[in-house]
Write a structure and sequence with these properties.
Layout lengths: L1 H7 L9 E5 L7 E6 L4 E3 L10 H22 L12 E9 L3 H6 L10 E9 L8 E3 L2
Parallel strand pairs: 4-5
Antiparallel strand pairs: 1-2, 2-3, 3-6
Length: about 140
């Protein structure tokens, strides 16, 4: 999806790597997300889940390790594109809980962008995200 948009707008393509923090009861259900810098978001839904601090720290460490491996593979032969002064369009093909996008938009990778926009596929929420920012 990102490649199609970049090509159509004659833009560059890069990635902001973010991973879902899965629920201990259902790993496919996002209780939040973490970005490359270690900043993470917990969704409002996580308030209702019984998630221990220990579980959250283990899940964050596991997902951060996967992000680092993805970055190593993706950026093997080139540096990341500097977003300074650019319009950044964050693209996600499916926004089930919105947790990963809520972490991607304020990510360190997009901090100095001139403007940020969101493009996504499906979403279960019609309003803005209920995510809150937590810095580690």
């Amino acid at each position: 999806m990102g490649r199609v948009i970049a090509d159509r707008l004659d833009g560059d393509l890069d990635v902001v790597l973010v991973r879902k923090l899965g629920s201990p009861f259902n790993p496919e259900y996002a209780i939040g997300a973490i970005d490359e810098s270690g900043a993470f978001e917990l969704s409002g839904d996580s308030d209702f889940a019984t998630v221990s601090r220990d579980y959250l720290e283990r899940e964050k460490a596991a997902q951060l390790a996967r992000i680092r491996e993805q970055r190593r593979r993706w950026s093997r032969n080139r540096p990341a594109i500097d977003p300074r002064g650019r319009i950044v369009i964050a693209v996600d093909d499916g926004l089930a809980t919105g947790a990963t996008m809520a972490a991607a938009l304020p990510s360190a990778s997009t901090t100095h962008a001139a403007r940020k926009r969101l493009a996504g596929g499906t979403s279960r929420r019609s309003r803005g995200s209920s995510a809150r920012t937590l810095r580690s």
